[in-house]
Structures are given as structure tokens and as C-alpha cells.
Automatic annotation (TrEMBL), chain A:
Start and end residues of each Na+/H+ antiporter MnhB subunit-related protein domain: 787-906
A biological process term (GO) from this entry: monoatomic ion transport
MF-aspect GO terms: antiporter activity
NADH:quinone oxidoreductase/Mrp antiporter transmembrane domain ranges (all copies): 125-415
UniProt keyword annotations, A-Z: Antiport, Cell membrane, Ion transport, Membrane, Transmembrane, Transmembrane helix, Transport
Residues spanning the membrane: 76-96, 108-126, 132-149, 161-184, 204-229, 241-262, 268-290, 297-315, 321-345, 366-388, 408-429, 456-475, 495-520, 569-590, 602-622, 629-646, 652-670, 690-708, 745-763, 784-804, 810-830, 850-870, 895-915
UniProt name for this protein: Multisubunit potassium/proton antiporter PhaA subunit /multisubunit potassium/proton antiporter PhaB subunit
Keyword Ion transport assigned: yes
Automatic annotation (TrEMBL), chain B:
UniProt family annotation: Belongs to the CPA3 antiporters (TC 2.A.63) subunit C family.
Localization, UniProt: Cell membrane
Keyword check for DNA damage: no
Name by which UniProt lists this protein: Multisubunit potassium/proton antiporter PhaC subunit
Keywords: Cell membrane, Membrane, Transmembrane, Transmembrane helix
Primary localization: membrane
Membrane topology, as annotated: Multi-pass membrane protein
Gene3D superfamilies: 1.10.287.3510
């Protein structure tokens, strides 16, 4: 049941996201049904939770790091779930009528449900890491919701700001949670909450507290991070009603309550949390007076109330905690209804600007009444819920023990907050519903549809019910939630309206009188409507973002200024430094004793000479490219011979084949590149590069020499011993490729296939100007044609032979695939591309695909039998006449390799050979001529 | 033969890096080809230089390191050779497209920078 409760919003979000956009009604119903059902499920758990039990469901998620999927519903989680789901239901109903036809309902509701799920997951988390995961998810979902009207730049900016700040806080929170995990040794909430003393006495406590509070303060818009909240008002109003009254911003104070037993109780906690709370309370309330936008005023008021809640948790006495929880509930109810009312006003008049509104009680009598009642709750007037929690706050401020100065400051702050609160509430009511107006509003104003008012009515009735008969309505909920935070330490408290004439009541009266006086005085003395305040926080934020961009740009420019040549130089230098530092740092380059060197036969020295000479010749005439390609080929042949001499027949064969194919490739490419390079002008640069090159070459030669003169330590003995009994092959290199390291090979053929497809994709539709073009059909070459006809079946046979014996003798998929390329290539040269492709009819792309599929299938087949990926099997059926045929499943894998190598190489070569000549551009002496405009116009016409 | 191989690799690397630092795309590709020879030889030589003992098991000879050369670097180099072919193909095509689209075979994609310096 708990799983279903949490899974439901996410599943519904998916369903809604993929629903037909035309079924707006069905989407709305589904979206409303989810929180309603959820509400039922939570209520079904109530008897247990009210009795003090904690329903729980645990699944391992990443147990290695202590992350469990742990749903745990204690009193606090229960209260928050109720709030999230109840207000969620009302918001969905409201949004259903608020969204206009042009807004995408499914996108909106999908985001909203995603957010609801994230919020539920966070409050129900029984594991701190899981809590952080859902915490981040709420940030992301809120980003999507704030930017719902993505065509508006203020929505995008507000969403980015909210994400940057709450996301940054989330990062800090993760750090704090990991530290807690280190201290406690577990992320399990029960363990953490029981280890309060351990955490508080740890030397890491200040860091833990700082990081966790950073997360809380950013999320709950506490000073100085409060500025993102007013900018998030660019969101559609239902989003504000949900996120910015009851859920998103409450996530911070929720965590404050959640971790209260683990973190609270120190002077540091007391001063920081209550201090920040008090500053936020006053700043928010003061700034709210100067807002002209209805939602802006509500946003600053929210900041102020969140400050109050933070302050209460900072005071840390059990009664303050109860008051904090109480105010969370009260604020959610009256603020959500006020946001909805603001949305109705916006909806009906087309503006939220209080300077243009006024006298709406004549036009919207019913809505006005509801809004005025909710505003009175916000101001803390008796008989409404806001009054009760405010009284509790006043009482707590007066009872701070042991910090005399703090008590004084808090009492003053409390009265001032009361004054400001009444003032901005009065402004909200007076400017909107009374006075003259509305001005410059289009169309006639009338009451909204029935269902848009119902959510507001429900919430206002709740405000009244809690305010008048608290003991019958809210008391059990509050008691259960307080138990969730305080455990057995829940104090005795009374939720009555009348406590007699006492100091808190006097403070309330002072607040109301002061607020009324302040508002009318300000109206009289200052022109409130003319004051426009910018947001300092926003300016600093934008400045920082700009600075960050500038820094990033400067860094990028310093590293990569767009010159590839320079980047390559840097790359080489960094690589040299990375190799050089350990090399010379360790000082172990030269062995102590003179090593015994093996001698090389004369033939070997001849090969060495050809290799070195070839390299130097390449270097001296690299500008004449045709010749350079041939000389490089000679160098490659010598490398191949080196492999022959040093006992690597497979490598020698592969190198030989690749050499042939690479030469063809380069010659094909040279038809589209200048045949000669322009001479270089800068002698300095050439000498500099030569110096770098010689240093690198010398260094690497030293490394190789040092390595070769040391004894080797290798696991090869094991592999040699196991090759035959376990890999069923005598050619150990091939056994390693297709069996021991088969997964590696699978990756490599995938890379090869991708390379082939890249070439195909880059050249398939291009037209290029060749350096030279031979007109007419291919030159007839009768002798060569005949020869190649004979050669082709022969080469095919050799290829298959090499493939089949590959497991036991030099050969295998790589080599056989390349061997097959050569005769096919010959056919291309002699018969022309079109004819060969017509006769052979091979689709190389498909060939690659089939090869990869075969390789993957042989890898996956053992998994069906319960073995790891690419486990090889072996059978030896005895056939008549032929005798025993050794068949390893690795052979099937090798077929995949074979097909991919052949298909990839042929795809590359045939695409490069089949480039169509450009119609517009021609090359002349190595320069591409610009298209002739006349010709261009002719083609267009 | 240790000296021969070390010096050959060193020369290949030096030539490769010098060409890698040139301005024209094809020269860079030639440099990469030489560098890949050098790299393959380097990895290969990690198995040490043993003539006449290929890692192919024959009946009657013990499958031990005394009778066979280390096969692991060979397996690594074999795929490296094939991959370096694929890599050469991709950068050749990039060079071709770069020149066709930019009108210059300078690796920076434009001629002007060369003249500025």
C-alpha cells in the first residue's frame, strides 16, 4: 500500500504525459483522482499512526552505499502527506479551470504529478539519501513548473534562478547528509534521529549543521537566499498556490523538523536558525508592503511566514516546535487560498497589479469575501487559524530562557512582524477590494466558474474551523505530528482561543493597531503606488552568473582559442609532461647493472635501417603526398616484418592487410585533398616543433629501453595454461580475443562499426570537387580483369580458411575479414563500382548490423542459461567422413567479428570511392574554385 | 635488439609528433599513422622481444612462458591495428569534408590565421 501510494503520482504522470492532448477533461479527472486516492490511502493508515505506530516498507536500492528505498510514515510524514495530497487535490481541480485552451494540459498535469510524487517521496523517506534524491527531484519538477510558460523570458529566468539556488542548496545538503552518515554509520532515519548526541558532540557538527542548513535555507527561501521566490511567481498561479504555499518551500522547514532531534539543542543551532528566521521574518514582511503585484506581495509574505516557522524551530523548545508545526499547516491553508484568489482576480480582470485594481467587492462579491477572510487569517486576527499559531509564537518569544538579549530582540521582532503583517494584509485587502477602481481593465468582470471557487471555499472553511474550534479539528493532527518530531517529549499545550488577558494578547492588539496606523500613515505620507523597488538579491545573482560565464569563456579561450593546431601542440606538451614527471621524478630510469642485450641478426638490422630511412624520408618529403603515402607503406611493411621476427604471426598478417587497405584509403582521399602542401613560412615554428618532437621521441625511446631491459611480470602463464582446456583453442591470441577478453573485442568491433557508419554518414550525400577526373567509363584492363577473376575465388577460399583455422593457428575473424576485402577491392578497381555492387549485391551497412547482432547474440545466449555475458561453450560432434568437428561458441562470436570487419572496411572504401563530383565547385591546382554565380542562378531557375 | 627497437620507436614518435604539429590536415594524418606504428610497437614490446616462440600451442610442448611469448600485448595490439585503420578512415573523411566545406585544408579550417602569425 505504501509503495502504491508513492508510485501512483509517477505512474499517473507518465500516463498523462502520453495521453492524447484532446482529452483535457479525462486528464484533469485522472490528475485529481490520484491525490484523492492517495488521501484515502493515507487516511487508511491514520488509526495506526494516531496510535503512535510507524508503518514502514523497505526495499534495497543501493545497499552498498547505504541507500535503501525506505518508506516510513511517522506522525510528521503523515501530516505532511495529508497536506501535500489535500492541497494537491484542490490545486488540480482549480488548475483544470485556470488553464486556458492554449496551455498544454497534459504537460502541466504531468509536471504537477511528478512534483507531487517527489514531494511525497521526500516526506515519506525513511533513509536520508533517499530523502536527498527526492529533494532534488522536487527542485527539478519545480523548475519545469515555474518555466511552464516557456515562451516568457521572466518565467525562464525565474525557473533558472530557482533551480540554481535550490539545486546548489541540494548539493550542500547531500554533503551534510553524507557527513551525518559518516558520523552515525547509517543513513537510516531511526538510527540518525536516535544519535543526536553523537552528532552534536562530533567535531564535524558545525560542518554538518552548516551544509544541512544551507539546503534548508535555500529551499525555504530564507534570507539571504529569499529572492528566488518572488521571481518564481512567473509560474502559473496554481503552481504558486501549490509549490509556494504548501509544498516546495515547506520542504525546507519539513527537513528542519525532521532532523530536529538530531541537530537541534546547541547554542550554534539556536543562534543561527532563530537569527536567520527572525531576519527573514522582518525582511519579508517589510518588503511585502511595497509590492504592487498581488502574487509578489503574497510571495514576500510567504518568505516572512517561512522565516517565522524557521525561527520557531530555532527556539527549539518543545512548545516552539509545536507552534512551528501548527503554523506550517495554517500558513498552507490560508496562503494557498490567497494564491488561488489572486489567480481568480488575474483570470477575471487580466491584471494582478494592485495599482490598477480596486473596489472588486462590487464586482466579485463572493471571491472578495473568501479572500478577505483568508487575509485576516494571514494577519493573525482572532477566530482564524493564523491567530492561534501567532499567539503561540508570541508566547514563546517571551519565554526564551537563558538568553536575555535574545529574548528582548525576539519580542521586539515579534511585535514588529505583527505590525508589518497587518500592514501588508491591509494593503492587499484595501487596494484590491475597496477604494476606487478597477482602472484600465478590459471587459466586464464576473464571478469565476463554480469549480474554481470550490477549492478556495474548502480552504477558507478550514481556516475558520481551525480558528474557532481548534480542539475538534486540528488538535489530533498536530499532536501526532508533534510526536513524530519530539517523540515522548510532547509538552502539554492548549489550543484555546481565549487564554485570558496576557502579554501575548497585548502584543497581538499592539500589532493590529500598529499595522493599521502604519498602513494609513504610509499611504498618507508616501505615495505607496509610486515606490518601485528592485531586488538586490536578483542583481547580485545576475552579476555572479555573468561573472561565471565570463570566467568560463576566458578559461575556454585560454585553453582552446579555435586553433586546432594550437590545441594539438598543447595536447602533446601535456602528454609529455604527464609522462615526464613520474619518469624523472622516480629517478629509476636506468637500471643499476648494465643489462645483457640480445643481438639482432643482420637481416633484422636491414629491416631497422629501412624502417628508419622510410620514416626520415617521409619526414623530409611529406609535402609531396603521393610519394609520402608509398614511403609510409614501406614503413608499415617493416613494422609487419618486426612482428614476424618477434613471434607475432597474427599481428604480422593483420598489419600487412591493414597496410594495403590503408594505402587504398589514402589514395582515395588524396583525390579530394591537395596533392602537395603549401610550403611553410615560419622557420621558428618548424624548429620549435622539431625540438618538441625530438624530446618526445628521445623520452619514449628511453622508456622503451628501460622497459625492455627489465624482467617482465605477467599473468600470461595462466592464460597460456588455460587456453586449451578452457578456451578450446591453440592460438592463444585468438582465444584471448574471442573468449578471455571477448567483451573487450565486442566493444572494439562496435567502435569499428561506428567508424564505418560515420564515414558513410559524412559522405553519403556529399558532392565534392575531385582534384582530377577521368572522363568516360573505366579503362579496359583485360589481363588484370582475367587475373582478378581467377584470384577472387582463391582469395575467398584463403579468407574462409584463415577464419576457420583462426582458433588454433594464426588467423581469425579480424584477419580473414581484411583478407576478403582485398580481392573485392580489386574487383572495384577493375570492373567499376556500379558493376561490382550490382553483381555482389552486398549491403555493407546491413552486413555490419548482422555481424554485431551475431556477436551480441553469442554473448547473450549464455546469460539465458545463467552464465555471465559471453561465456563460451564447446561441443565436438563427430560427423561421418569428416570426423570430430570442434565447435566453440566463440567461433560464432568470431563470425560476428568477421562480418563487422569486412562490412566496415568495405563500407568505408566503397563510400569513399563513390563520392559524386560536385556540380558547382571545381578544383584547379589544389585550390577550390568558388561557384560561378551565373551557373548557380541557372541551376536555381 | 633492445636498442634497435627502442631507437626505431623513438624515431617514429619524433617524426609522428613533428607531422602532428603541421598545419595541413593530410600531414597530420601521416603523423598519426607513424604515431600509431610507434604506439603499437610500444605496447607490443611490453611482452618483451622473443624471436621464434609464437603463442600458438603445439602438442608436445608445455604451454608455459618458457616456450611461448606473452600473448596478451599481441591481442591488444591486434585490435589496436584494426581500430587505428578505422580512425584513419574517419579523420581522412573529416579532412575531406573540412576542405570541401571550408575551402582550405588547414586544420584550423581557415587560412587567415596562418598569415596573421
Amino acid at each position: 500500500m505504501l509503495y502504491l501510494l508513492l508510485a501512483m503520482p509517477f505512474i499517473a504522470a507518465l500516463v498523462v504525459a502520453f495521453a492524447s492532448p484532446l482529452q483535457r477533461r479525462a486528464i484533469g479527472w485522472l490528475a485529481a483522482l490520484v491525490p484523492l486516492t492517495g488521501l484515502g490511502m493515507v487516511l487508511a493508515q491514520s488509526p495506526a499512526v494516531l496510535k503512535g505506530e510507524v508503518p514502514r516498507a523497505v526495499l534495497p536500492w543501493l545497499p552498498q552505499v547505504g541507500l535503501m528505498f525506505d518508506i516510513r510514515m511517522d506522525g510528521l510524514a503523515w501530516m505532511f502527506s495529508l497536506m501535500v495530497l489535500l492541497i494537491g487535490t484542490l490545486v488540480v481541480i482549480y488548475a483544470r479551470y485556470y488553464l486556458s485552451k492554449s496551455d498544454s494540459a497534459r504537460r502541466f498535469f504531468a509536471y504537477l504529478l511528478l512534483f507531487m510524487g517527489a514531494m511525497l517521496g521526500m516526506v515519506l523517506a525513511g533513509n536520508l539519501l533517499m530523502l536527498v534524491v527526492f529533494w532534488e527531484l522536487t527542485s527539478i519538477a519545480s523548475f519545469l513548473l515555474i518555466a511552464f510558460w516557456s515562451h516568457r523570458s521572466d518565467a525562464r529566468e525565474g525557473a533558472r534562478m530557482a533551480l540554481a539556488i535550490t539545486g546548489g542548496g541540494g548539493m550542500a545538503l547531500l554533503g551534510g547528509v553524507i557527513l551525518i552518515g559518516r558520523i552515525v554509520g547509517s543513513y537510516d532515519l531511526d538510527v540518525v534521529l536516535a544519535s543526536g548526541d553523537l552528532i552534536r558532540n562530533s567535531e564535524w557538527y558545525p560542518y554538518v549543521l552548516g551544509l544541512v542548513l544551507l539546503g534548508i535555507f535555500t529551499k525555504s527561501a530564507q534570507f539571504p537566499f529569499h529572492f528566488w521566490l518572488p521571481h518564481a511567481m512567473a509560474a502559473p498561479t496554481p503552481v504558486s498556490a501549490y509549490l509556494h504555499s504548501a509544498t516546495m518551500v515547506k520542504a525546507g522547514v519539513f527537513l528542519l523538523a525532521r532532523l530536529h532531534p538530531a541537530l537541534a539543542g546547541t547554542d550554534l543551532f539556536f543562534y543561527v536558525v532563530s537569527g536567520v528566521g527572525a531576519v527573514t521574518l522582518l525582511t519579508g514582511a517589510w518588503l511585502a508592503i511595497f509590492q504592487h503585484d498581488l502574487k509578489g506581495l503574497l510571495a514576500y509574505s510567504t518568505i516572512s511566514h517561512l522565516g517565522l516557522i524557521t525561527l520557531l524551530f530555532g527556539l527549539s523548545t518543545p512548545l516552539a516546535v509545536v507552534a512551528g508545526l501548527f503554523h506550517i499547516l495554517n500558513h498552507a491553508t490560508f496562503k494557498a487560498s490567497l494564491f488561488m484568489a489572486a489567480g481568480i482576480i488575474d483570470h477575471e480582470t487580466g491584471t494582478r497589479d494592485m495599482r490598477r485594481l480596486g473596489n472588486l467587492r462590487r464586482h466579485l462579491p463572493f471571491t472578495s469575501t473568501l479572500a478577505i477572510i483568508a487575509t485576516l487569517a494571514m494577519a493573525g486576527i482572532p477566530l482564524l487559524n493564523g491567530f492561534l499559531s501567532k499567539e503561540m509564537f508570541f508566547a514563546q518569544a517571551l519565554e526564551i530562557e537563558g538568553h536575555a538579549n535574545m529574548r528582548m530582540a525576539m519580542t521586539v521582532a515579534a511585535v514588529l512582524a505583527g505590525v508589518f503583517g497587518v500592514a501588508y494584509s491591509l494593503r492587499f485587502v484595501h487596494d484590491t477590494f475597496f477604494g476606487k477602481g478597477p482602472r484600465a481593465v478590459e471587459g466586464d468582470i464576473h464571478e469565476p466558474p463554480r469549480w474554481m471557487k470550490i477549492p478556495v471555499e474548502v480552504l477558507v472553511v478550514l481556516c475558520l474551523a481551525v480558528g474557532i474550534v481548534p480542539a475538534w479539528t486540528i488538535a489530533p493532527v498536530l499532536h501526532t505530528a508533534a510526536q513524530g518530531v519530539l517523540g515522548a517529549k510532547v509538552p502539554h499545550y492548549s489550543l484555546a482561543i481565549w487564554h485570558g488577558f496576557n502579554l501575548p494578547l497585548l502584543m497581538s492588539i499592539a500589532g493590529v493597531v500598529g499595522g493599521v496606523l502604519l498602513y494609513f500613515a504610509m499611504r498618507r505620507l508616501l505615495d505607496l503606488h509610486a515606490i518601485v523597488r528592485g531586488s538586490l538579491g536578483r542583481r547580485i545573482y545576475l552579476l555572479n552568473v555573468e561573472r561565471l560565464y565570463a570566467l568560463a569563456n576566458r578559461f575556454t579561450r585560454a585553453i582552446a582559442n579555435g586553433s586546432e593546431q594550437r590545441s594539438q601542440l598543447l595536447l602533446v606538451l601535456v602528454a609529455m609532461a604527464l609522462a615526464g614527471v613520474p619518469l624523472f621524478g622516480s629517478g629509476a630510469l636506468w637500471p643499476a647493472a648494465l643489462p645483457s642485450l640480445s643481438s639482432l641478426p643482420l637481416l633484422g638490422w636491414l629491416c631497422w635501417f629501412i624502417l628508419v630511412a622510410g620514416t626520415l624520408i617521409t619526414l623530409s618529403m611529406y609535402r609531396y603526398r603521393l610519394r609520402a603515402v608509398i614511403v609510409v607503406g614501406v614503413v608499415g611493411l617493416m613494422v609487419s616484418l618486426a612482428f614476424v621476427y618477434f613471434s607475432a604471426p597474427d599481428l604480422a598478417l593483420t598489419q600487412l592487410m591493414v597496410e594495403i587497405v590503408t594505402a587504398c584509403l589514402m589514395l582515395l582521399a588524396l583525390n579530394y585533398l591537395p596533392k602537395e602542401a603549401v610550403p611553410e613560412r615560419s622557420t621558428v615554428r618548424r624548429w620549435r616543433d622539431a625540438a618538441i618532437a625530438v624530446t618526445a621521441g628521445g623520452g619514449l625511446a628511453a622508456i622503451v629501453y628501460a622497459m625492455l631491459t627489465r624482467p617482465s611480470s605477467t599473468i600470461a602463464g595462466e592464460i597460456l595454461a588455460r587456453s586449451l582446456p578452457e578456451g578450446h583453442g591453440s592460438n592463444v591470441v585468438n582465444v584471448i580475443l574471442v573468449d578471455f577478453r571477448g567483451f573487450d573485442t565486442f566493444g572494439e568491433i562496435t567502435v569499428f562499426a561506428i567508424a564505418g557508419l560515420i564515414v558513410h554518414a559524412l559522405l553519403r550525400r556529399t558532392r565534392m570537387a575531385p582534384e582530377e577526373m577521368v572522363e568516360g567509363p573505366p579503362m579496359p584492363l583485360p589481363m588484370a580483369a582475367d587475373l582478378s577473376q581467377v584470384l577472387f575465388p582463391l582469395a575467398l577460399t584463403v579468407s574462409i580458411y584463415l577464419f576457420l583455422r583462426g582458433h588454433n593457428a594464426p588467423g581469425g575473424g579480424f584477419i580473414a575479414g581484411l583478407v576478403l576485402v582485398v580481392p573485392v577491392l580489386l574487383q572495384y578497381v577493375i570492373q567499376g563500382m556500379e558493376r561490382v555492387e550490382r553483381v555482389l549485391g552486398i549491403d555493407y551497412v546491413r552486413c555490419i548490423g548482422i555481424g554485431l547482432l551475431i556477436a551480441a547474440a553469442t554473448g547473450l545466449a549464455p546469460m539465458l542459461l545463467g552464465y555471465p555475458f559471453l561465456t563460451s561453450g564447446h561441443v565436438g560432434p563427430v560427423l561421418p567422413v569428416v570426423g570430430e568437428v570442434p565447435l566453440a561458441s566463440a567461433t560464432a562470436f568470431d563470425i560476428g567479428v568477421y562480418l563487422v570487419v569486412f562490412g566496415g572496411a568495405m563500407l568505408i572504401l566503397s563510400t569513399m570511392g563513390g563520392i559524386r563530383p560536385s556540380l558547382l565547385r571545381k578544383t584547379y591546382r589544389g585550390m577550390i574554385q568558388r561557384p560561378d554565380p551565373a551557373q548557380f542562378r541557372g541551376r536555381r531557375a | 635488439m633492445e636498442i634497435a627497437l627502442a631507437s626505431a620507436i623513438g624515431i617514429l614518435v619524433a617524426a609522428g609528433i613533428y607531422l602532428l604539429l603541421r598545419a595541413r590536415s593530410f600531414d597530420v594524418i601521416l603523423g598519426l599513422t607513424l604515431l600509431s606504428y610507434a604506439t603499437n610497437l610500444l605496447i607490443f614490446s611490453a611482452g618483451r622481444l622473443v624471436p621464434g616462440k609464437p603463442p600458438v600451442l603445439r602438442s608436445g610442448i608445455d604451454p608455459t612462458l618458457a616456450n611461448h611469448v606473452d600473448p596478451i600485448p599481441q591481442a591488444l595490439v591486434l585490435t589496436a591495428i584494426v581500430i587505428s585503420f578505422a580512425m584513419t578512415a574517419v579523420i581522412l573523411v573529416l579532412a575531406m569534408r573540412g576542405r570541401a566545406d571550408n575551402g582550405s585544408d588547414h586544420v584550423d579550417g581557415t587560412e587567415s590565421k596562418e598569415r596573421d602569425r
